[in-house]
Amino acid sequence: MSTGWIILIVVLVVVLAALIVLSIYGRKLQKRSEEGQAQMRAGAQSVSILVIDKKRIKLTEADLPKIVVDQTPKYLRRSKVPIVKAKIGPKIMNLMCDDKIFDLIPVKKEVKAVMNGIYIMDVKGLRANLDVKPEKKKLFARLTSKFVKKGNS
Hints:
Blueprint: H1 3-42, E1 45-58, H2 66-71, E2 80-88, E3 91-97, H3 99-102, E4 110-116, E5 119-125, H4 139-152
Parallel strand pairs: 3-5
Antiparallel strand pairs: 1-2, 1-4, 2-3, 4-5
């Protein structure tokens, strides 16, 4: 065998081993995430809140309790997170929100929220259903839909 083939086989074995290690580590992280979500759902409460404002701002600028900022890893403190300013009873609070439902939360309306501490996990309209905005199509999807329409007509 030539030296080139030996180097190629060694590189392929190393890449294959790296892929196997990454897949095992990924499964372990996914299990840990699912367990955390299950614990969050177990301690969740349904609360009626009036949403005053919502925006994505840095965690350190969000006026969250000091313990929340201290427990966050340092590399994530500068990242922008979805923050909802809401009135719960007589108290106005800043709450963290799940990325998936951030766009669904209406501003200056009352909603029923499923919360665990200061984290909003789900929202439902209190008086009416929430308006779901249609998803924006990506460039490729828009172009293909235009071509399909032109082809059919």
